[in-house]
Design a protein that fits this description.
This protein has 236 residues and is mainly alpha-helical. It has two domains: 110 residues, Serine Threonine Protein Phosphatase 5, Tetratricopeptide repeat, CATH 1.25.40.10; 97 residues, Serine Threonine Protein Phosphatase 5, Tetratricopeptide repeat. 76% of the residues lie in helices and 0% in strands. It contains eleven helices and no strands.
Amino acid sequence: MKLQCLFPWILTILCVLTIQLHAATDEELYNKHWAEGDRYSAEGKWDKAAASFTKAIKYYPALPANYGSYVNRANAYSMLGKLDLALKDYNKVLDAFPDKSVKELGEVYYNRGEAYKRNKKPALAIPDYEKAIAIDSEIKSVHNNLAWLLATCSDAKVRDGAKAIKYALIACEKTDHKNASYLDTLGAAYAEAGDFENATLTQKKALELETNAEDKADLATRLALYEKKMAYHKAE
């Protein structure tokens, strides 16, 4: 009689242990595929990164909790030129957050802006950069990247010298005017606004700070343009 009473309890305990073991296995597999995706991203192996994050999502699809996997997969798709797939993931994450002002969304808008720019849709990148700044102004590079686009885009409808100066100055101030790349952007912004005196002075400061030979040559090329009172425009 006692054995008959105990038997259902033993089955229940075994079922619970099986479920817990299965859950632990899913977590381990999720962590494994996430780590692989992260490593492949760092190595620039974007097809493998996308595949790994897809596997991670399989074991932990919850949104917004696991928004990072979707954003990382979207970034990989963007690097592969698969903008439609990237946008699907970015938008899914944006829709999943009921509070549209949370800091996490700043990174999502920034990354979607980068995807638009990378895939030759600069006009769509600008509002995403601006949304990212409005949500989280501390996102690394966002002011600089927005300023560079506003200053140098080949599409005249996208360019805005005054706004480019505004954002480039913020980027430079955040780095105590010691980042050569950000000063390069500020120089391009001044040139786009027609202020070639400040463009030349700023570009010379950037050249003094730059240590990479190839980047230094690019800075010198733009300096030569500003000295001729010509702005620098780059095809996106």
